[in-house]
What we know:
By secondary structure, the chain is of the alpha/beta class. Helix content is 22%, strand content 15%. The protein has helices at residues 38-60, 104-112, 173-176, 216-225, 263-266, 284-293, 314-324, 403-407, 421-432, 454-457, 473-484, 501-504, 512-519, 532-536, 542-547; strands at 23-25, 35-37, 78-79, 115-117, 125-127, 143-146, 154-157, 204-211, 233-241, 271-277, 300-304, 308-310, 330-333, 354-355, 360-363, 370-373, 378-379, 388-390, 397-401, 435-438, 444-446, 521-522, 527-528. Strands 3-10-9-8-11-19-13-20-18 form a nine-stranded mixed β-sheet, with helices on both faces. Strand 9 (233-241), helix 5 and strand 10 (271-277) form a beta-alpha-beta unit. The radius of gyration is 29 Å and the shape is globular. Mean pLDDT is 86; it is low at 1-15, 64-78 and 80-121.
Amino acid sequence: MLEMEKPLKRRVKAAPAPLFPTGVVCQPTASQPGAIEAGVLISVGVIAIYLFGFYETLVSLPDTPQPPKWSLHMGQNLNLAHPSEWDLPVAADSVASGGKPKKLGTFLGSLKRKFIGGNKDKDVEVPVGLWPVSIRNELDDFETILHPGDLKTNMSVPKFWSRPIHHKKLMSRETAMKIGTCAEPDRNGNANRGDDCPPDQRTIYLGIASYRDFQCRLTVESAFTRAKNPDRIRVGVVDQIVDGEDVVCNEPVESCDKNPEQALCKYKDQIDVYEMEAELSIGPVFARHIGYRLYRGEYYATQSDAHVTYTLGWDADIISQMEITDNDMAVLTTYLTDIQGSIDPQGHSLRKTRPIMCNTIYEGGPQGMHLRHASQPERNPSVHGMPQLQPWWAAGYSFSRGHFLVNVPYDPYQPMIFQGEEMSIGIRGFTIGYDYYAPERSVCFHHYAVGKNAKVRNKVHHFWENDRKYSGTGKRAMQRLLGIVRMNPEIDPSKWDHVEEERYGLGGVRTPEKFYETFGIDVHNKKVEGHLCQFVDNGEGKMHHLFTKFLKSDGMGIDYGQIDYVFKDPRPGQQ
């Protein structure tokens, strides 16, 4: 029997449902399959409004740290080098290694963090600055780093306020103006006002690295007492001490109950002290690295040694000197004059002279051949009415816009370095676009161990008492330091550590070679052209007059691309 062919069945596909509603009705029917009920739309809208309100509530909550077991009273500083002593929360980075997860307060703090994006530098994200501000409100958000000297001690430290924002190119002025808080916010409560902020309301961060120095608290006292507007000043101290032996930097000479008018009492909320054991000290570079981590977006940033005395109205004076340069990339920096014979009891300067940075020499030693600053000339300024341009940066005193600390952070991988830190910061800053000036007037003076101060200052300890404990680290650190700034071309780059070189390395505005060529430094033969001070400060200020005419029209640094000057020793063979 023949099998009959089965009839073909035509399959009809159902029409696909429309992607979007075709109408809005009170109640959908079969004749309107694509319509959506109005009640559904209303419900979705209500939920969206609720979620948006919930988000806005979260981001508007004030910071409320967990109840601490540490104390913020006078004389009871945070010993953050060993956070377990204060029962600090585990840092975010430690979660991956088995630590406890971050608390809700940390999540909310992260949620609240906002950024201001630049239009020209679209890859730059600048955190919003707040005023007043303190790292004491950020303890849940600290991070753990490994001590670069012994490579085994975990240290809890503040996070940087911002990563470098130069991205190996010159910042736009628009971006630079997004950094800097104002003590007087605008009508909307915004502390970021750029150069609309009146100069007398622009905030100042003062960083101090102190090693077992009894005069540290006197330095802080004079900075607040002598300031024209102390309310806009915030001090960050890295206090390296032996507990029970050394005076802490924010402990007033008298109790606050007895003398509440002391600056350390009146302005205690504007002083952040990061205390660490002296035995962990590996020199000023690491201490100042932590000090840069204490910066929180202030308009200006300054640093000095822990044993200086400030002049009356120093804050207004140095700002006026800074602003008259018309250079947002200016850094006013110098070796300080000795206190003796320099200041009267009321805080007025008695000096008409000022030091200028122009004298360097090569020297050898256990860490190898390197360039360092020699003694600097001090004389009446060659340039009047403004600071004078110079080649070099000095660690003993520096005043700049706050973005200098953001863009040129101290390299923590330089343990036991003393001579050399100024070459690292100075040359890296040059490549990022910064220019160095000698202040026309000194606003603070240094207590050197000379004359009547010799006896008391010679009793102060120095970090190199830890030299044996960290033996050998300085030589490796010097190779890295010189390698980054291309001062040791004879060393194979694979021989030195390149960790985090992107953050602690060079900029892209100028090259180190341009600096060496301009100012007569032979990094191959380890020689310098002599008598550079005659070019810098010969009574005429030749460098200043020759170079400042190439200041960019937007005030963002001197254009060294227009400068073809090459310094040669005018008196070869002479002292």
